[in-house]
Design goal:
With 318 residues, the chain is of the alpha/beta class. It is built from 11 helices and 17 strands. Strands 3-9-2-1-12-16-17-15 form an 8-stranded mixed sheet, with helices on both faces. A 4-stranded mixed sheet has the order 8-4-10-11. Helix 3 crosses helix 4, helix 8 packs parallel to helix 10 and helix 9 packs antiparallel against helix 10. Bound molecules: adenosine-5'-diphosphate and magnesium ion. Magnesium ion binds next to loops.
Length: 318
């Protein structure tokens, strides 16, 4: 195995690591995108980082739910938690195999494993009574309201694009397998975990784990996992090279290095919308306050350069 440098990095892969807008998400295409997204991870392995990889699953879990709906009456219904677990497995397999082949080619062989990850949430989380995360297909208002009645869904209008199912997206509190993940990571194994944000579970009155129909934001899950395994660095790879203030406006300004308190001010000033940059910044702040040393937000292409400080947005403690 290649030399380790003693530091642990959590790398969160955004949606476009695996599926890209406007390109059909066949498995062949998903594999091809995955292979291309690994450059940054390979650079981190070369630099000797101990590694955890997390990833989103929006399109994949949407497809999983669609298959369940299309098979209604012919194959058993799968609850959302099982769909998340299934996509963690399938996507983990694609990332795991692609990375194993790539590390071998680069002469950086290390064990790579995927862990299906349950994440504890609070059953009293306010999101559970007021779900807000859109998932799956778009429907007409009539269809959506019919499914709400027949299937017990909660549905809402998603801007001007149509009606969709909404599910809770509670705050992740703790990763059930974090000690195991930490042990594996410390011995040099690359661990793929918290895929799709992990499977939300809560602890019931009897102290047992119980699943629920919800999803967890993958960036927040990555921060919680990073803190629990005492990672130094969280790297969030997404579709933009840097974080901006006044994003998309004429006075847009790309950020190089920002401290926690500067970032908190930008959050207060409303620069980061919910559902895209908002949770990444929240995850960054949470990770740094929980003991993390550095967060980098950048694009897949710039991951290597971001490490030596020539690309990306770096967020550091005050
Ligand atoms: P991922 O799948 O990687 O989680 P998201 O689409 O959820 O990606 O979030 C990344 C997107 O956030 C970017 O593509 C960009 O369009 C958007 N975004 C919103 N606000 C900002 C901002 N202030 N700076 C940079 N990007 C932003
Ligand atoms: Mg996202």
């Amino acid at each position: 195995m290649s030399q380790l440098n003693g530091k642990t990095a959590v790398v969160a892969l955004g949606g476009n690591a695996i599926t890209q807008p406007g390109i059909e998400d066949t498995i062949a295409n998903q594999f091809a995108h995955t292979r291309k997204s690994l450059d940054g991870i390979v650079e981190l392995a070369r630099a000797g980082y101990k590694l955890v990889i997390t990833h989103g699953n929006g399109p994949q879990v949407g497809n999983a739910i669609l298959r369940v709906e299309l098979a209604r009456g012919q194959a058993p219904i799968l609850p959302l938690g099982v769909c998340v677990a299934d996509t963690e497995g399938g996507m983990g397999y694609m990332i795991e195999q692609s990375l194993q082949n790539r590390l071998k080619k680069e002469g950086l062989e290390r064990p790579v494993v995927t862990i299906i990850t349950q994440i504890i949430i609070d059953p009293e989380d306010p999101q559970i009574a007021k779900p807000s995360k859109y998932i799956g297909q778009f429907y007409s208002e009539d269809e959506a309201k019919r499914f709400a009645k027949e299937r017990g869904w909660i549905v809402k209008k998603d801007a001007n694009r149509g009606w969709r199912r909404v599910v809770p997206s509670p705050q992740p509190l703790s990763v059930v397998a974090s000690e195991t993940i930490k042990a594996l990571v410390n011995q040099g194994t690359v661990v793929i975990s918290a895929g799709g944000g992990g499977i939300p579970v809560y602890i019931d009155d009897k102290g047992n784990l119980e699943g629920l129909d919800a999803v967890i934001d993958k960036d927040l899950a990555s921060a919680v996992l990073g803190n629990e395994i005492q990672a130094e660095i969280l790297i969030i790879l997404t579709s933009v090279d840097r974080v901006a203030v006044n994003f998309g406006r004429l006075d847009e300004q790309w950020l190089n290095q920002v401290t926690v308190s500067e970032m908190e001010q930008y959050v207060k000033d409303g620069h980061f919308p919910p559902g895209s940059m908002g949770p990444k910044i929240q995850a960054a702040l949470q990770f740094l306050k929980g003991g993390g040393k550095e967060v980098i937000i950048t694009s897949f292409n710039n991951a290597g350069k971001a490490l030596d400080g020539t690309a990306g947005t770096r967020i550091v403690p005050d």
